[in-house]
Amino acid sequence: MTSLDVDTPHGQALVELHSAEEGSAVLLLGHGAGGGVDAPDLVAATRGATAAGVHVALIQQPYRVAGRRAPAPAKQLDTAWLAVARWLGENWFHDLPMVFGGRSSGARVACRTASEGGAAAVLCLAFPLAPPKNPERHRLAELTAVETPLLVVQGDGDPFGRPEPAPHREVVMLAGDHSLAADPIGVTRAVEEWLARVLRPLARPD
Protein backbone atom coordinates (compact mmCIF):
# COMPACT_ATOMS: atom_id res chain seq x y z
CA MET A 1 0.00 0.00 0.00
CA THR A 2 1.26 3.47 -0.95
CA SER A 3 0.05 6.70 0.67
CA LEU A 4 -0.03 9.94 -1.32
CA ASP A 5 -0.87 13.53 -0.39
CA VAL A 6 -2.70 15.32 -3.19
CA ASP A 7 -3.42 19.04 -3.25
CA THR A 8 -6.94 20.11 -4.24
CA PRO A 9 -8.66 23.52 -4.39
CA HIS A 10 -10.20 22.74 -0.99
CA GLY A 11 -7.20 21.38 0.88
CA GLN A 12 -5.07 18.28 0.91
CA ALA A 13 -6.58 14.89 0.14
CA LEU A 14 -5.02 11.58 1.15
CA VAL A 15 -4.87 8.63 -1.25
CA GLU A 16 -4.12 5.02 -0.36
CA LEU A 17 -3.05 3.02 -3.40
CA HIS A 18 -3.55 -0.75 -3.50
CA SER A 19 -1.94 -2.25 -6.58
CA ALA A 20 -3.17 -5.26 -8.52
CA GLU A 21 -0.61 -7.60 -10.05
CA GLU A 22 -1.57 -6.67 -13.60
CA GLY A 23 -3.69 -3.57 -13.32
CA SER A 24 -5.92 -3.08 -16.36
CA ALA A 25 -7.86 -0.20 -14.77
CA VAL A 26 -8.10 1.80 -11.56
CA LEU A 27 -11.04 2.05 -9.15
CA LEU A 28 -11.30 5.28 -7.16
CA LEU A 29 -13.27 4.83 -3.93
CA GLY A 30 -14.60 7.56 -1.66
CA HIS A 31 -15.77 7.25 1.93
CA GLY A 32 -19.09 8.06 3.59
CA ALA A 33 -19.98 11.44 5.09
CA GLY A 34 -18.68 10.77 8.60
CA GLY A 35 -16.52 7.72 8.03
CA GLY A 36 -13.18 6.79 6.58
CA VAL A 37 -11.63 4.56 3.96
CA ASP A 38 -11.42 1.69 6.47
CA ALA A 39 -15.18 1.05 6.28
CA PRO A 40 -15.90 -2.70 5.94
CA ASP A 41 -17.53 -2.43 2.51
CA LEU A 42 -14.67 -0.34 1.13
CA VAL A 43 -12.17 -2.90 2.40
CA ALA A 44 -14.23 -5.69 0.82
CA ALA A 45 -14.55 -3.80 -2.47
CA THR A 46 -10.81 -3.19 -2.55
CA ARG A 47 -10.24 -6.91 -2.16
CA GLY A 48 -12.63 -7.69 -5.00
CA ALA A 49 -11.16 -5.09 -7.33
CA THR A 50 -7.55 -6.18 -6.90
CA ALA A 51 -8.64 -9.80 -7.44
CA ALA A 52 -10.16 -8.65 -10.74
CA GLY A 53 -6.85 -7.07 -11.76
CA VAL A 54 -7.88 -3.49 -10.96
CA HIS A 55 -5.78 -1.03 -8.97
CA VAL A 56 -7.61 0.77 -6.15
CA ALA A 57 -7.20 4.35 -4.93
CA LEU A 58 -8.98 4.99 -1.62
CA ILE A 59 -9.52 8.74 -1.40
CA GLN A 60 -9.93 10.62 1.86
CA GLN A 61 -11.57 13.98 1.27
CA PRO A 62 -9.81 17.15 2.51
CA TYR A 63 -12.34 17.82 5.28
CA ARG A 64 -11.58 14.42 6.81
CA VAL A 65 -7.82 14.90 6.41
CA ALA A 66 -8.25 18.17 8.31
CA GLY A 67 -9.97 16.32 11.16
CA ARG A 68 -13.53 17.49 10.55
CA ARG A 69 -16.45 15.06 10.71
CA ALA A 70 -19.10 17.30 9.18
CA PRO A 71 -18.93 16.87 5.39
CA ALA A 72 -18.04 19.70 3.07
CA PRO A 73 -20.67 21.05 0.65
CA ALA A 74 -21.35 18.87 -2.39
CA LYS A 75 -19.62 21.22 -4.84
CA GLN A 76 -16.45 21.16 -2.75
CA LEU A 77 -16.54 17.38 -2.51
CA ASP A 78 -16.97 17.06 -6.27
CA THR A 79 -14.21 19.58 -7.06
CA ALA A 80 -11.73 17.91 -4.73
CA TRP A 81 -12.61 14.46 -6.11
CA LEU A 82 -12.08 15.54 -9.71
CA ALA A 83 -8.77 17.18 -8.80
CA VAL A 84 -7.53 13.92 -7.29
CA ALA A 85 -8.77 11.91 -10.27
CA ARG A 86 -6.96 14.19 -12.72
CA TRP A 87 -3.76 14.07 -10.66
CA LEU A 88 -3.81 10.28 -10.49
CA GLY A 89 -4.45 10.03 -14.21
CA GLU A 90 -1.53 12.33 -15.00
CA ASN A 91 0.97 10.96 -12.50
CA TRP A 92 0.15 7.31 -11.80
CA PHE A 93 -2.33 5.69 -14.14
CA HIS A 94 -1.60 6.98 -17.63
CA ASP A 95 -4.14 5.76 -20.21
CA LEU A 96 -5.84 3.34 -17.79
CA PRO A 97 -9.65 3.36 -17.63
CA MET A 98 -10.95 4.86 -14.39
CA VAL A 99 -13.94 3.59 -12.44
CA PHE A 100 -15.44 6.04 -9.96
CA GLY A 101 -16.98 4.65 -6.79
CA GLY A 102 -17.62 5.02 -3.10
CA ARG A 103 -19.96 4.30 -0.23
CA SER A 104 -22.97 6.41 0.72
CA SER A 105 -21.95 10.08 0.31
CA GLY A 106 -18.91 8.93 -1.65
CA ALA A 107 -21.19 7.05 -4.04
CA ARG A 108 -23.12 10.26 -4.67
CA VAL A 109 -19.88 12.09 -5.46
CA ALA A 110 -18.90 9.33 -7.90
CA CYS A 111 -22.24 9.61 -9.72
CA ARG A 112 -22.22 13.40 -9.91
CA THR A 113 -18.66 13.56 -11.28
CA ALA A 114 -18.66 10.50 -13.57
CA SER A 115 -19.41 12.37 -16.78
CA GLU A 116 -17.00 15.26 -16.23
CA GLY A 117 -14.28 12.92 -14.99
CA GLY A 118 -14.62 10.51 -17.92
CA ALA A 119 -15.31 7.49 -15.73
CA ALA A 120 -15.63 4.20 -17.60
CA ALA A 121 -18.06 2.85 -14.99
CA VAL A 122 -19.45 3.70 -11.53
CA LEU A 123 -19.66 1.59 -8.35
CA CYS A 124 -22.08 2.61 -5.61
CA LEU A 125 -21.92 0.94 -2.20
CA ALA A 126 -24.94 1.67 0.02
CA PHE A 127 -26.28 4.48 -2.14
CA PRO A 128 -28.42 6.75 0.11
CA LEU A 129 -31.49 6.93 -2.10
CA ALA A 130 -33.50 9.06 0.35
CA PRO A 131 -33.21 10.18 3.98
CA PRO A 132 -35.35 7.84 6.14
CA LYS A 133 -37.36 10.75 7.60
CA ASN A 134 -37.64 12.65 4.32
CA PRO A 135 -38.34 10.11 1.56
CA GLU A 136 -39.53 12.86 -0.78
CA ARG A 137 -35.94 14.19 -0.90
CA HIS A 138 -34.74 11.31 -3.04
CA ARG A 139 -31.49 11.34 -5.03
CA LEU A 140 -32.60 9.11 -7.91
CA ALA A 141 -31.56 11.76 -10.42
CA GLU A 142 -27.92 11.26 -9.44
CA LEU A 143 -28.16 7.58 -10.39
CA THR A 144 -30.12 8.11 -13.60
CA ALA A 145 -27.60 10.71 -14.79
CA VAL A 146 -24.91 8.03 -15.03
CA GLU A 147 -24.69 6.80 -18.61
CA THR A 148 -21.86 4.28 -18.14
CA PRO A 149 -22.21 0.83 -16.53
CA LEU A 150 -23.31 1.28 -12.92
CA LEU A 151 -23.42 -1.22 -10.06
CA VAL A 152 -25.27 -0.55 -6.82
CA VAL A 153 -24.57 -2.92 -3.90
CA GLN A 154 -27.23 -2.37 -1.26
CA GLY A 155 -28.25 -3.93 2.05
CA ASP A 156 -31.74 -5.40 2.06
CA GLY A 157 -32.42 -3.63 5.36
CA ASP A 158 -30.95 -0.25 4.37
CA PRO A 159 -33.21 2.51 5.77
CA PHE A 160 -32.04 4.80 2.95
CA GLY A 161 -33.97 2.71 0.42
CA ARG A 162 -33.41 0.32 -2.46
CA PRO A 163 -32.59 1.60 -5.94
CA GLU A 164 -34.21 -0.40 -8.74
CA PRO A 165 -32.34 -1.86 -11.72
CA ALA A 166 -32.51 0.21 -14.90
CA PRO A 167 -30.68 0.59 -18.20
CA HIS A 168 -26.94 0.79 -17.43
CA ARG A 169 -27.73 0.08 -13.75
CA GLU A 170 -27.36 -3.26 -11.98
CA VAL A 171 -28.41 -3.73 -8.36
CA VAL A 172 -27.09 -6.45 -6.04
CA MET A 173 -28.98 -6.86 -2.77
CA LEU A 174 -27.13 -8.35 0.20
CA ALA A 175 -28.15 -9.11 3.75
CA GLY A 176 -27.54 -6.17 6.06
CA ASP A 177 -28.11 -2.48 6.64
CA HIS A 178 -26.50 0.73 5.38
CA SER A 179 -23.07 -0.30 6.66
CA LEU A 180 -22.90 -3.36 4.36
CA ALA A 181 -20.85 -4.96 7.11
CA ALA A 182 -22.92 -8.13 7.42
CA ASP A 183 -21.70 -9.80 4.21
CA PRO A 184 -18.22 -8.60 3.23
CA ILE A 185 -17.66 -11.72 1.14
CA GLY A 186 -20.78 -10.87 -0.84
CA VAL A 187 -19.47 -7.36 -1.48
CA THR A 188 -16.11 -8.71 -2.63
CA ARG A 189 -17.71 -11.21 -5.00
CA ALA A 190 -20.14 -8.69 -6.47
CA VAL A 191 -17.40 -6.14 -7.14
CA GLU A 192 -14.93 -8.66 -8.56
CA GLU A 193 -17.46 -10.22 -10.94
CA TRP A 194 -18.85 -6.88 -12.13
CA LEU A 195 -15.47 -5.25 -12.73
CA ALA A 196 -14.15 -8.24 -14.63
CA ARG A 197 -17.23 -8.19 -16.85
CA VAL A 198 -17.67 -4.47 -17.56
CA LEU A 199 -13.97 -3.76 -18.08
CA ARG A 200 -13.38 -6.68 -20.44
CA PRO A 201 -14.45 -4.69 -23.54
CA LEU A 202 -12.00 -1.95 -22.55
CA ALA A 203 -8.99 -4.25 -22.28
CA ARG A 204 -6.12 -3.23 -24.50
CA PRO A 205 -5.07 -5.84 -27.10
CA ASP A 206 -1.76 -7.56 -26.49
Automatic annotation (TrEMBL):
<dbReference type="InterPro" id="IPR029058">
    <property type="entry name" value="AB_hydrolase_fold"/>
</dbReference>
<dbReference type="InterPro" id="IPR026555">
    <property type="entry name" value="NSL3/Tex30"/>
</dbReference>
<feature type="domain" description="KANL3/Tex30 alpha/beta hydrolase-like">
    <location>
        <begin position="25"/>
        <end position="165"/>
    </location>
</feature>
<keyword id="KW-0378">Hydrolase</keyword>
<protein>
    <submittedName>
        <fullName>Alpha/beta hydrolase family protein</fullName>
    </submittedName>
</protein>
<dbReference type="Pfam" id="PF20408">
    <property type="entry name" value="Abhydrolase_11"/>
</dbReference>
<dbReference type="InterPro" id="IPR046879">
    <property type="entry name" value="KANL3/Tex30_Abhydrolase"/>
</dbReference>
<dbReference type="GO" id="GO:0016787">
    <property type="term" value="F:hydrolase activity"/>
</dbReference>
